[in-house]
Structure formats: structure tokens, C-alpha cells
Amino acid sequence: MGQIILRLDRVMVERKMSLNELAEKVGISNVNLSKIKNNKVTAIRFQTLAAICEALQCEAGDILEYSSEE
User: Fold this and answer.
1) CA end-to-end distance (rounded Å), the chain
2) Which of 33, 39, 46, 61 is the right S-S partner for 23, CB 3.0 to 4.6 Å?
3) Strand 3-6 relative to strand 64-67: parallel, antiparallel, unpaired?
4) pLDDT tens, 11-49?
5) 10 close to 61: Cβ distance less than 8 angstroms
């Protein structure tokens, strides 16, 4: 089965936004955002994903990527 990969780090670099700045705009802790950024989570709330997309002015597809297991 494939997996979902979070590309939040790439989008943050493109938007020139720091972890601290994004965490403040989204309203979650730096620790939790760091886990999302480093792909160390197994789930993400749609509410959190929507807040991240709003803060970074991007689409969910810019952050989420599907990788098939080969």
C-alpha cells in the first residue's frame, strides 16, 4: 500500500515562512507543527490542514503527496 508524504517543509521554504511564524498563525505548538513538517505524524486534522493552507496561501495538494509503494 502507498503512503501520504507531507511536503510542508518545501512549501514553507517557498513562502519564506519560519516554523515559529507558521505555528503562531495556525494556532498550534511549535512541537506539533515540527512533527507535521518532518513527516512524523500518522494523522492530521482537516481543521489544522485548512489553517496551514490559509496561512501559506496554498492548496492541500501542495502539502500532501501520494507515493505508491513499489
Assistant:
1) 9
2) 33
3) antiparallel
4) 999 999 999 999 999 999 999 999 999 999 999 999 999
5) no
pLDDT of residue 1: 85
Beta bridge partners of 67: 3
16 SS3 class = coil
Mean of pLDDT values over 5-12 = 96
Furthest C-alpha separation in the chain: 38
**Element at 4 (helix H, strand E):** strand 3-6
pLDDT value for 70 = 62
Nearest to 17 by CA among 57, 60, 70, 47: 57
Total-model pTM: 0.91
> Other CB atoms closer than 10 Å to residue 47's CB: what's the count?
10
CB-CB contact of 64 with 7 (8 Å): yes
